[in-house]
Amino acid sequence: MPANGEEPAVAPAAPAPAPPPAEPPGGARAWWVWGIGVAVYFLAMFHRNGLGAAALEAQDRFDVGPAVLSLLPMLQLLVYVVLQVPTGLLADRVGPRASLTMGLVAMASGVALFALAPGIEAAIAGRVLIGLGDAVTFLNVIRLAALWFPRSRYALVSALTGVVGGLGQAASVAPLSFALHGMGWTGAFLLFSGITLLMLLLVLLVVRDRPGPAPDSGAHPPLRAWTAVREALAAHGPRLGMAHHAAVMPPFTTLGVLWGYPFLVEGVGFSSAAAGALLSVVGAGVLWISPLLGAFVGRRPGVRRPLATGLVALLAAAWLVVVCWPGGLPPAPVVVVVLVVSAAGSVIAPALSFDFARDGLPAERTGVASGLVNMSGFLTTVVVTVAAGVVLEAGGGFQAAFVPVTATTALAGALLAVLLWRRPRRGGAAR
């Protein structure tokens, strides 16, 4: 005790560290909210791919040739790719509910404009609006998964999101074709514009950004655009997701979007019916892999590293077989195996790519990271699809035309391996 009798000064205790944020509970309400969100994604994929069923009618209605008509899906896809990062920023700033609402308004308006378009210019404007709405949907369904489900469920929900999108793509042709024949051009597209508005009502009634009250805005304040992009690129997880998506998504997507049918018919010698059936059966037959893998990865995140590198190595080897087969294209059984491996890679992409991107960032700021990952896959797909067309136009065969997609898969796979294996895992593969 001091001589003057005063109590010694006591240093103030250091504040206790803030507890880590509680994980979302998941449960029935989370599945219900996500279910409405993924139904929007189903509808977006329906609008994105349904034009194939209306191609002949569009050519007659707008009095244009195939070259001009091809601008409609290409511009829509270009809008989708270019807007991935901006829509990711929007998702992080205003939340999934507002973003999905704006996307549905854009899609409904675009489909209505396409229904009433008097000429090709208005039709192009309509498809651009559909592309604007489409660009918003996937990222925000993924954000709902991050905000409503515990981390261990994220890979599964991401995988299921991809599966529902694939079903939307596959289901687009028959209903639109039936409506076109039964109701005519204007009636069919106005019908699907009205369905889109009904989906908008469901989003407003059911979807909320997160369970419970909004978190303290100071915990994860919104960032400026360039700062948010730099934060995502600086984190290890988004870089892994970008490399993985660029490696595994383009091969089968390139075939499905444009070159699979000509490759099988003109290159390998399949009949038209057999080529179409093979692409459909292979694409649908591997969908079950994704949710099973997502559930497994959620329980054992450490398997992501060997699984991702093994898949990419197998995919690159399969396409090297195609482009290096002596004396021309490989026989049909080998081509079928390559198609199956490629299709499996494309459906596995959401389960791993977006799960990687979730690492190292708070759930409130995953929109930009998911946008970068999505953009890497789609941009690579556009590049290799156009490159294949240039090679074929110049007189090269399919082996030469598929060199670009083989090269991008191998290079992106090598980058992924470097990123995955150059540093030790932290807490279950950097979770």
From TrEMBL:
Pfam families linked: MFS_1
Subcellular location: Cell membrane
Keywords: Cell membrane, Membrane, Transmembrane, Transmembrane helix
Region listing for Disordered, in residue ranges: 1-22
GO molecular function: transmembrane transporter activity
All residue ranges annotated as the Major facilitator superfamily (MFS) profile domain in the record: 33-425
Biased composition (Low complexity): 1-13
InterPro entries linked to this entry: MFS, MFS_dom, MFS_Efflux_Transporters, MFS_trans_sf
TM segment ranges: 30-47, 67-91, 98-117, 123-142, 184-207, 246-264, 270-295, 307-328, 334-356, 368-392, 398-421
Superkingdom, taxonomy of origin: Bacteria
One annotated Gene Ontology cellular component of this protein: plasma membrane
Gene3D superfamilies per UniProt: MFS general substrate transporter like domains
Membrane topology field: Multi-pass membrane protein
Protein name as catalogued: MFS transporter
Organism from which the protein derives: Streptomonospora mangrovi
